[in-house]
Design goal:
The chain has helices at residues 2-37, 42-49, 65-68, 71-78, 81-93, 95-105, 109-120, 131-141, 146-162, 185-191, 207-220, 251-256, 289-295, 301-314, 333-345, 359-371, 382-389; strands spanning 129-130, 171-172, 230-234, 249-250, 260-261, 271-275, 284-287. The protein is mainly α. Among the domains are: 2-62 and 127-178, Helicase, Ruva Protein, domain 3 (Orthogonal Bundle); 333-389, no CATH class. Strand 6 (271-275) and strand 7 form a beta hairpin. Helix 7 packs across helix 11 (207-220).
């Protein structure tokens, strides 16, 4: 009976797997035809798509941190002293390229470098998934946006066809973004520049090309030379007026509503929108259309705010002054590494303490919280860190 049961299960699995494989093969065939119709060479199509198998890209579609993480956690991990210090050092190291990019496109060097820091931790976190494999998987198996990913796949094949990026360095995020500043392939085709003058637009191995390309992107997105992205403001007690990134009004409008700079100075001229990323009890910002240019890079307000605050810090300005409306602030990467090390000391297996709070770390935090009589949420906040410290 056990033997018969085994063969029955095996047969069922084999029957179930065959249509899935056939669907993948059929979809891949359609992608090959679409690429050929778009002018990609048969050599590139065969080389890139010939024996391709799907990867795990689809599983990450609904896990983007800028949409799933509290804003105070998101900002704390991206705008910390380590990133500020490293960014300032890299601004000095790449001063020539940044000056060229700023002169050509009118974008502040600090904003360019802030994008670099947030997107790839200054080139240390490109992502390791082959771009072609991820985009083919998403084109065929994603529950939505398949046409978008197919367009990006064909753009990626054109990049390989042109020779700007070598196949072995064409790796990136689950969604197909790649290089120092994580361009999608279609963005690369329309926006990448050869700032270092070597004849290739290579944002994967040339930091200069990546910085120039990022400046060009922000320029095309409407960046205005010399205009601040915005600034933190103070709301009057009980403020219940308008807000929202798209509700741009003259500065006089906001002044009439009792909104003021933290230092009491004039709001200035022009138009701005009132951004309340954590509601009316948290930090408030008046943001100009330069904020929108950064928002165009990745349509998430917390993402754009992280870049803007990091750019201010790189210029020697203070970070966010108003406390977030939480009694459990987020942790810097150094504090997250400390938290992981303390969990390891207590016998938890969280891997190397790298400051990345993945599944193992979250499970360990939740277990420790339960044992310590705390709310079990698996979040790496200051409260659980202080308990681990013995405070």
């Amino acid at each position: 009976m056990k033997t018969n049961h085994f063969f029955a299960v095996c047969a069922a699995l084999c029957v179930a797997a065959t249509p899935v494989k056939a669907e993948w093969s059929s979809c891949l065939g359609g992608l090959r035809r679409a690429a050929a119709g778009a002018g990609v060479s048969q050599e590139t199509i065969s080389s890139a798509l010939g024996s391709l198998e799907p990867n795990d890209a689809v599983s990450f579609m609904d896990k983007q941190p800028e949409f799933t993480t509290p804003v105070w956690d998101y900002i704390a991990g991206l705008v910390d002293e380590e990133r500020v210090d490293e960014g300032r050092a890299l601004m000095r190291q790449h001063a020539h390229s940044l000056q060229a990019a700023e002169a050509r496109y009118g974008v502040d060097a600090s904003a360019i470098v802030a994008v670099w820091g947030v997107e790839s931790d200054f080139g240390k976190s490109f992502g390791k998934r082959p771009v072609i494999q991820s985009l083919a998987t998403l084109s065929c198996e994603a529950p939505r946006r398949n046409q978008y990913f197919e367009k990006e796949l064909i753009a990626a094949l054109k990049i390989l066809d042109h020779g700007d990026i070598a196949p072995q360095e064409f790796v990136g995020s689950w969604a197909g973004a790649f290089g120092h500043t994580q361009f999608m392939p279609s963005t690369f085709l329309t926006t990448a520049v050869d700032l270092d003058g070597d004849g290739r637009k290579n944002i994967a191995s040339s930091a200069a090309d990546a910085l120039g390309s990022t400046a060009n992107y922000l320029h095309k997105s409407g960046w205005t030379r010399g205009l601040p992205w915005g600034f933190e403001v103070r709301l009057p007690e009980g403020y219940s007026g308008p807000s929202g990134r798209t509700n741009r009004q003259p500065m006089s409008h906001w002044a009439a509503h009792g909104i003021a700079k933290l230092d009491g100075g004039s709001l200035g001229e022009g138009k701005a929108a009132l951004l309340l990323p954590a509601g009316r009890r948290g930090p408030a910002f008046l943001v100009t259309h330069n904020f929108d240019a950064i928002y165009a890079y990745n349509a998430a307000e917390s993402y754009a705010l992280a870049i803007c605050i990091l750019s201010d810090r790189l210029r020697g300005r203070p970070g966010i002054q108003t406390p977030w409306p939480t009694d459990d602030p987020g942790l810097s990467r150094a504090e997250r590494r400390e938290l992981q090390a303390l969990l390891i000391q207590r016998g938890y297996d969280v891997g190397e303490p790298d400051g990345v709070i993945g599944t193992k770390s979250k499970e360990a935090i939740a277990d420790f919280e339960g044992r310590a009589g705390m709310k079990r949420d698996g979040r790496a906040g200051l409260k659980v860190l202080n308990v681990l410290r013995g405070r």
